[in-house]
């Protein structure tokens, strides 16, 4: 749909049929309930990290993501709006976020940001490997860290990992990096 049509214009739309939007939300709600049931069952069988990587869980996460996009598209197509319905926002008292880090004097508190990928094995005969994905992401991470620094941000730490998000602020990891002579703020696997 073009952003130049009446749906995206400044005039009120008047009568709008909400049914396509409700159907998209209902499909998403059904998938979320199925995810909860599956996650509970998988977690009863496996530890947390194994459950995160279980193919049933990953397939449902992909389905939920697609249905989130369908909700966005339904609202966008019918109302011309660009809803931000997939952000996670925790509201509470003025406590520091769980993943906040010490920032240099004068800087605002830091938070952890993640960019995740679910990557399947390459096709047979392909020269790529899953280990190569870590190398590619590590290189891209260095580029992103530099761009953030160039943009005036203080990048306290960044890391590349496989299978689980990196826990930042681990003094043992920082000590190991220092002993190896590596930059403790550089990428990690």
Describe this structure in words.
Helix 1 packs antiparallel against helix 3. About 9% of the residues have low confidence. This protein has 2 domains: 74 residues; 101 residues, no CATH class. With 189 residues, it is mainly alpha-helical. The radius of gyration is 22 Å and the shape is extended. The protein contains 5 helices and no strands.
What keywords describe this structure?
189 residues
Topology, element by element:
Blueprint: H1 19-45, H2 48-52, H3 55-79, H4 130-150, H5 171-180
Helix pairs in contact: 1-3
Q: Count the DSSP helices.
A: 5
Rg, Cα atoms, Å: 22 Å
Q: Judging from the principal axes of the Cα atoms, what is the shape?
A: extended
**Total beta strands:** 0
* Helix amount: 40-55%
DSSP strand content: under 5%
Structural class: mainly alpha
What is the distance, rounded to the nearest whole angstrom, between the alpha carbons of the first and last residues? 42 Å
Unreliable stretches covering 5 or more consecutive residues: 170-186
Query: Structurally, how many domains make up the residues?
Result: 2
Give the helices and strands as they follow along the chain.
HHHHH
Quick structural overview:
It is built from five helices and no strands.
């Amino acid at each position: 749909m073009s952003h130049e049509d009446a749906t995206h214009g400044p005039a009120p739309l008047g009568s709008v049929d909400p049914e396509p939007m409700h159907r998209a939300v209902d499909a998403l709600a059904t998938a979320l309930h199925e995810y909860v049931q599956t996650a509970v069952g998988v977690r009863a069988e496996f530890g947390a990290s194994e459950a995160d990587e279980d193919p049933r869980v990953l397939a449902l996460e992909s389905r939920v993501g697609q249905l989130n996009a369908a909700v966005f598209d339904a609202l966008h197509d019918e109302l011309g709006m660009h809803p931000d319905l997939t952000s996670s926002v925790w509201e509470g008292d003025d406590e520091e976020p769980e993943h906040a880090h010490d920032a240099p004097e004068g800087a605002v508190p830091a938070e952890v940001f993640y960019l995740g990928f679910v990557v399947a094995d390459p096709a047979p005969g392909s020269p790529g490997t899953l280990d190569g994905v870590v190398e590619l992401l590590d290189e891209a991470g260095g580029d992103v860290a530099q761009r953030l620094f160039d943009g005036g941000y203080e990048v306290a730490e960044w890391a590349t990992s496989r299978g689980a998000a990196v826990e930042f602020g681990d003094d043992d990891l920082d000590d190991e990096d220092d002993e190896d002579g590596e930059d403790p703020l550089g990428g990690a696997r």
